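User: Here's a chain of 326 residues. Predict its fold as tokens.
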Amino acid sequence: MCILGLGLIGGSLMRDLHARGERVYGFTLHSARGARREGFDVSNSVEEVLRRAEDERALVVVAVPMRAAAGVLDQVAEYAPSCWVTDVVSVKQPVYDLIVERGMEARYVGGHPMAGTEFSGWTASQEGLFAGAAWAVTYDYAREHPDDASWAELFTTVCRLASVVGAEAVPVSVGRHDEAVARVSHLPHVIAEALALVGDRGGTLAQSLSAGSFRGATRVASTAPELVQNMCETNAESLVPVLDEYIARLQSARDALAATPPSMQELAESGHRAHLRMAARKGARRESVSPVKISSRPVMRVHPGAAGWVTQLTQIESLGGRVEVF
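Assistant: Prediction complete.
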């Protein structure tokens, strides 16, 4: 495998694959020397690694921010025109649009591991980051080309990649993926940033009195601003309606608290019930936002390319379940 971009996600993927004896090499502009000192096969020349990937028919994993994806895909098209491609970018529709523009959809399967921390860069990468996490795997191309055997093999490969690093493949369409992550990944960043600002306006007294609830709710506000911008701006089409829904909830709570007598009952009770539902389904691992507990997540075995396999994927997606390929 050839990984382009060795930040938190790409770097962690390289560490996991290397630890499991997989043949993996990669490209990064900023930490190649440090990665090589740790014993990893890393270059600061994207042309070099892509030409090597083309010679070796490697799976190319695009692990750069969305703002850099177009340029990197152009380089993949130029230097590795026959390689299979996947990615780990946090939005899927914009990436798929770039793929279609370049006529690469027959050799692309989108991916997004739902794991991470508030830190970034190669030095933040770690083994075991993906253990127990959901790994979204897109299948839009198969809806129109269910009999494409080569693409079915690529889908299998990406699912197995997720499995090798301890994650669980969850089939998704690009549109539904982006709406879902707007709710559970990108909106929390917006909330955390705004809450940090409100808390900060309380000055040193508010800081002295802040406790675990405030620290937990604002944890992801420590993420590098450019990463938050990249996530939220590239998914604005899905994020804005979700943000409207959240604001409406806040406005309703504000009106109830401003009433005589003030009331927090409706939001507290309904929010608590929603939390219990989410807690019953989420993965046991803290960093994962996998929607269903490993022991109870619906599992369906699928033979990619077999009759009706795309219909099976749609059913699994509707359940938020995982897919095992054979």
